[in-house]
Amino acid sequence: MPHTMRWWNVATSAPKKEEVLRYLGHRNQQVSDELLARVDQSIARCVQIARPACVQRTFLASELPIALPGNDIAAHLSDAAEVLFFAVTLGHGVDQELRRLSYVDPLEQVLFDAAATALVEQEADKIEANVRLASAERGLYCSWRFSPGYGDLPLGVQPSFLQVLDATRRLGITLTKSNLMVPTKSVTALVGIHPTPQQGLASSCAVCTLREFCALRTKGLRCK
């Protein structure tokens, strides 16, 4: 049977200001003290509202519960002994605040959105780090996390992905008709757990299906 874990992280730590600025498109240009103060306020507000929650399950690589089409994910999981699936979300409160700000303060909405993006990615980083640590304690090694929509792994796997994790019931994550997640500040991903160290595994814009309309890429930035 797969191992299942769920936890709520109510007292989450704040994302780094540098990461929030990166999602705002900052490229070492001068930033006013007033704007930096507003960024700090947005980060604090986001941490106050967010309710990070996660669920994860681990399966033997030979017994995956869903099909994962694509050459990139096949290469990513090549020689994996196990595969860990996870979903993490900041909760519906963050989406509600983004909608409210869109009516009353568009600039604050942009700042809050960047803070929320940095926060959910930080939470995903924490999960990945914990998986790496737990695997190392077993003498195993991890590949980096790989999400639906990356490379040639289609977003069409999202319904099955969420079903495997029971993420709608456990975390309240649902999908739009185009398989985008609600709450919007949510991440699904999988991590390969391998018996040997993995060489040459690095994320690349060149294999991402979102590259043509990625706002970060058009500014010369990367999400990893």
Write the layout of secondary structure elements.
Blueprint: E1 3-8, H1 17-23, H2 33-49, E2 53-60, H3 71-76, E3 82-89, H4 92-104, H5 106-137, E4 141-142, H6 158-165, H7 167-171, E5 174-175, E6 181-182, E7 186-194, H8 215-218
Antiparallel strand pairs: 1-2, 2-3, 3-7, 4-7, 5-6
Describe the structure.
The structure is a single chain. This protein has 224 residues and is α+β, with helices and mostly antiparallel strands. Helix content is 41%, strand content 17%. It has 8 helices and 7 strands, in the order βααβαβααβααβββα. It has a 5-stranded antiparallel beta sheet with strand order 1-2-3-7-4, with helices on both faces. α1 (17-23) crosses α5, α2 crosses α5 (106-137) and α4 packs antiparallel against α5. The longest helix is centred in the middle third of the chain and has 32 residues, at 106-137. The chain starts with a strand and ends in a 6-residue tail after the last helix.
The string of secondary-structure elements, in order, is EHHEHEHHEHHEEEH
Number of strands: 7
What share of the residues lie within helices?
Answer: 40-55%
How many distinct helices? 8
Largest sheet: 5 strands, antiparallel
Radius of gyration: 18 Å
Shape: globular
Spatial separation of the terminal alpha carbons: 33 Å
Structure, briefly:
The chain has 224 residues and is α+β, with helices and mostly antiparallel strands.
